[in-house]
Each structure stands twice: as structure tokens, then as C-alpha cells.
Amino acid sequence: MKNKKWYQRPFLWLFLTVLVYIPTEMWMKLPRAEVDKFFEEAPTLIEEKILVKYPEDLTIKVDKGKVELNKNLPYCLVVEETEGEKTGIIFDKNPRAEDLRKAENEYSNLCKTVGMVGEDYVVFPDDKGIKVEEIPTEISVEINKEQLNMWVEKYLPMVKKWGFLAYQTIPFLLVPVVMMALLITNFWYGLVLVLMGKLLKIKDLTSGVAYKISLLIFTFWTAFKWLVGIIIEQTNGKTVSLSPFVFFDTILITAIGLFLIKNEIVEVGEKKEKEPEAKQ
User: Fold this and answer.
1) Which residues are CB-neighbours of 106 under 8 A, at least 6 positions away?
2) Any residues with CB less than 8 A from the CB of 197 and at least 6 apart, and which?
3) CA–CA separation, 4 vs 59, rounded Å?
4) What are the DSSP E strand ranges found in the chain?
5) How far is CA 263 from the centre of its chain?
6) SS3 content of the chain, % helix, strand, coil (to 5)
7) CA 65, 70, 72 angle in degrees (round to 5)?
8) So what's the pLDDT on residue 127?
9) 184: nearest Cα among 30, 48, 14
10) Domain chopping of the chain, boundaries
């Protein structure tokens, strides 16, 4: 069995490129120091944004999807207060979804409404407008200030632990996804190369061979663009595209592929070994 030459292993080169590219790119965009800082500041942020603002005497009870409060309805749970203007979530027996669309509604004297909770449903804005969702009957929970503090103390260390693990592993989990996307993209480059080969009457250039040659060039070109992009971004703080127009990559990969084939730098067919001459 013949050993494969370096250019006959495009899938290996692609795998190594993506394996280096994805983790490096993600860790450069989101350094470990920033992740550490986020988790260090998380308890303070939770305290300031949630725990401090949650009333000491408020208890929200959800029993099989039914919401009850130990306060008279309607009630506004304030989530933000700026210059005397309160913004919060309205709890009422049957709040109307259309009220969330109005700048002025029946709850305006309580606070500016950003969401509403009814007896067994919630109303909130999303990208498509206002959404109403029923609270699943499987949910039964009691929320108060003491319970929130307990949850933070119990689950924040777990979130921190799994967060660091995700930070280390997610880039590698993305490797096969990115590889698949690049392999699919290369079908186009392989198709163009094989069509140009037919026009130039290059023998033995099958679609499979063209795909591998274009994949090899595509991989090295991608790696080159990535490295140059990092250098430029680190030195000038700018992001520069090395593909000046839409089909630049296609033209470049096809031209290099034809050059390699024409000059026999890569082999497109089986070379026939010369038969030994018979001795006289």
C-alpha cells in the first residue's frame, strides 16, 4: 500500500486547521480573564439587580400553574427605578395583553409595564410583538427573599463550575459543525474546478479528485486569511477582508488548482509504472 503524499490528505489538513482556529478565535474574542471577572462579579450583580429590589415581604406562590401573591392585586414588582419613574412586572387576575402595547394603560399609576403575570399565564414582548404563554401545570414553587438568597448560594457555584467547563469544551464541540459547513462550501469550488478541467481537456480529473484538490487549497487559503486577519487586528485594531469581491475565492482556488494540475505538482491520475525490460 502506497503512502499518501501530504497534498493527498485534505481532510486531515482541514481538521487540524479548524481544530486550531475555533478555540483560538473564541478564546481571543473572550479571554479567560473576562470570564473570571464575570463570575467574580456575578454575586454582586445578582445582589444589586435582583435581591436588593425584591421586597422583603413579597411571596409569589405558583401551585400547579396557578399564581398567588400575598399582596392586593394589581401589584407591580419593580425591576428598575430611574429618576422616580418605576418600571416593573404587573401581577393581576386577568391582565389584558393589549395593555402591554399601550404607553398609558390601567396600570400606569403603578409603574411602566414591561411584562404581566395573570392567574395562569404570562404576557411579555418578543421579536414578533406581544406573546401570551400559559404557565405549565407542572410548575409548583414558592418564591420569597429568603428563597432567592438560598438559590443564589446553592446554585451560583454550580453555574460557575459548569460555566468554566463550557468555556473550555464548547470550542472543540463546534469543530465538527464548522468542518461540515466548510466541506459543504467546498462542493462549489470542486464543481468549478472540474468544469474548468473539462474545458481545458485535463484527463483523469474526476469530480472526486477535483473536490480534494480544491479542499486542500480552500483549507490553506482559509488558514492564511485567518492568520493575516489576526495580525492586522492585533496591530491596527481593524478587521480587513482579503476577498475584495464576491467570487474572488472561487477564482483564486480554481486558478491555483489548475496551476498545480498543469504543472503536475499534484497527481490527478494513477501513474503507470514502467514494466521491467525482459533480459535478452
Assistant:
1) 74, 99
2) 205, 210, 258, 261
3) 70
4) 60-63, 66-69, 75-82, 85-91, 112-117, 121-126, 129-134, 141-143
5) 42
6) 50, 15, 30
7) 105
8) 74
9) 14
10) 6-30+174-262, 31-56+145-169, 59-143
177: pLDDT confidence band, cut at 50, 70 and 90?
Answer: very high
CB 77 within 8 A of CB 86: no
Q: Would you state the pLDDT for residue 19? A: 92
Phi/psi-derived region of residue 83, left when phi > 0, alpha when psi is between -120 and 50, beta in every other case? left
Q: Are strands 129-134 and 121-126 parallel, antiparallel or unpaired?
A: antiparallel
- Name the residue type at position 91: F
Mean pLDDT of 192-209: 88
- The pLDDT tens digits for 35-83 are 777 777 776 766 666 677 778 888 888 888 888 888 888 888 888 877 7
CA–CA–CA angle 162, 164, 168 (5° rounding): 110
The pLDDT value recorded for residue 6 is 63
Name the residue with cell 473539462. 198
Handedness of CA 105, 109, 112, 115 (dihedral sign): negative
Mean pLDDT of 189-196: 93
* Least confident residue range of 15-19, 58-62, 263-267: 263-267
Question: Which cell numbers in the block locate residue 5?
Answer: 503524499
**Which of 6, 7, 24, 32 has the alpha carbon at shortest distance from 175?**
24
